[in-house]
Amino acid sequence: EPEVTQTPSHQVTQMGQEVILRCVPISNHLYFYWYRQILGQKVEFLVSFYNNEISEKSEIFDDQFSVERPDGSNFTLKIRSTKLEDSAMYFCASCRDLNEKLFFGSGTQLSVL
Amino acid sequence: DQQVKQNSPSLSVQEGRISILNCDYTNSMFDYFLWYKKYPAEGPTFLISISSIKDKNEDGRFTVFLNKSAKHLSLHIVPSQPGDSAVYFCAASGDNAGNMLTFGGGTRLMVKP
């Protein structure tokens, strides 16, 4: 079965540094998402992306965050200046249509020191 | 924000018996409900969903029941198998929000052989 691929699986960074989390959604999917799960907390929606623009974003997704689809296959989440509280598992997800199920990647564990 | 709640953090069941996982929600605008399963080091995997126009949806060993008046849904797994041991997340969306999901905190199911 096709998969959403995320790299790296683990990322350690210093507070204040920029990080880019990478995702390759399933190839015929059109809708892309980032979710995150802070340890011991719920999975939270961050942002959705369709047709090369953000369609929805949560309160978490402030101006330190940005997303991009730089080419036909990659979908990235950038955190401009990381904070300790950005430490979390970040999940990329995609779907072909809004009414179809979301496929999640295995996640990138981000640790901000 | 407790719009979707799973009050049981864990559940232990004997192989072959029924597993019942519960979920409550508070937002009346939710009209689509999903269950995801998550193994360690993997992303959530879609299991089954139900629209608010139905009160039951069945897929093999998995059945989801929705009680709109009580704002409650449950996932029944019968018969339970050791491979079902995972964390189960209830999620909801509504008001044409597509796959902008609000997740519950998860229930860890352990199925003992």
In short:
The complex is a heterodimer of chains A (113) and B (113). By secondary structure, chain A is mainly beta. In chain A, 0% of the residues lie in helices and 50% in strands.
How many individual helices of chain B?
Answer: 0
Helix content of chain A: under 10%
CA-based shape of chain A: globular
Please identify the structural class of chain B as seen in this structure: mainly beta
- Poorly predicted runs of 5 or more residues of chain A: none
Describe the largest sheet of chain B: 6 strands, mixed
Distance between the termini of chain A: 36 Å
Oligomerization category of the chains in this entry: heterodimer
Distance between the termini of chain B: 37 Å
Mean pLDDT of chain B: 94
Rounded to the nearest angstrom, the radius of gyration of chain B is 13 Å
Mean pLDDT of chain A: 94
Rg of chain A? 13 Å
The proportion of strand residues of chain B reads: over 45%
Helix-strand sequence of chain B: EEEEEEEEEEE
Report the major sheet of chain A. Answer: 7 strands, mixed
**Which segments of chain B are poorly predicted (pLDDT under 50) over 5 or more consecutive residues?**
none
Structural class of chain A: mainly beta
What this model shows, in words?
Chain A is mainly beta. Chain A has strands at 5-7, 10-13, 19-24, 31-37, 43-50, 53-57, 65-68, 75-79, 88-95, 103-104, 108-112. In chain A, 0% of the residues lie in helices and 50% in strands. In chain A, the strands form two sheets. In chain A, strands 2, 4, 5, 6, 9, 10 and 11 form a seven-stranded mixed beta sheet that branches. In chain A, strands 1-3-8-7 form a four-stranded antiparallel beta sheet, with no helix packed on it. Chain B is an all-beta fold and 113 residues long. In chain B, strand 7 (62-67) and strand 8 (72-77) form a beta hairpin. The model of chain B has no long low-confidence stretch (mean pLDDT 94).
